[in-house]
Write a structure and sequence with these properties.
6 strands, 157 residues, 6-stranded parallel β-sheet, single chain, 18% strand
């Protein structure tokens, strides 16, 4: 399955995956490469910041919340200072409403709960890429974050 964004313009978006687990990095890389994305990886927040400072220009950053040293929220804050328009998807094994709220306030576009399912990952990445293609007035979703899978007790009405 090739995402619409890759088919539409013939180029592959670059996704930076930041996770302290080598197994999770491999898994997420595999899922994203199946969808025809270019994938860069970093094993911690400091490496992710260094990657950005050295010229890596990802369309989307997939960022683990719980990492030793600089956790995902601190990394998110610093990434957004470097590139305020960066599309960041947070990823965590814990469905913590307080962390989701904090990530949203810091600028995260989506929050995925581990174990990450391919369908949800693809949907979150496509949502971020769609926001890049839209005019700024169409993407006034600041303060709203997509949480996948939907949280228990979620009512869409």
């Amino acid at each position: 399955m090739v995402p619409l964004s890759a088919r539409a313009n013939g180029t592959k978006a670059t996704i930076l995956v930041v996770d302290d687990s080598p197994a999770m990095l491999r898994y997420l890389r595999l899922l994203l490469e199946i969808d025809s994305y270019q994938v860069e990886t970093a094993s911690n927040g400091a490496d992710a910041l260094l990657c950005i400072r050295q010229g890596c220009s990802p369309a989307v950053v997939l960022l683990d919340v719980q990492m030793p040293g600089m956790d995902g929220l601190k990394t998110l804050r610093r990434l957004m200072k470097l590139q305020p328009d960066l599309n960041v998807i947070m990823c965590s094994g814990v469905d913590d409403p307080a962390k989701i709220r904090r990530a949203t306030l810091l600028g995260a576009k989506a929050y995925l709960t581990k174990p990450v399912q391919h369908l949800y990952l693809s949907a979150a990445v496509e949502r971020c890429l769609d926001s890049i293609r839209m005019e700024p007035a169409e993407t006034s979703s600041h303060g709203r974050v997509i949480t996948l899978p939907p949280r228990a007790g979620y009512d869409s009405n």
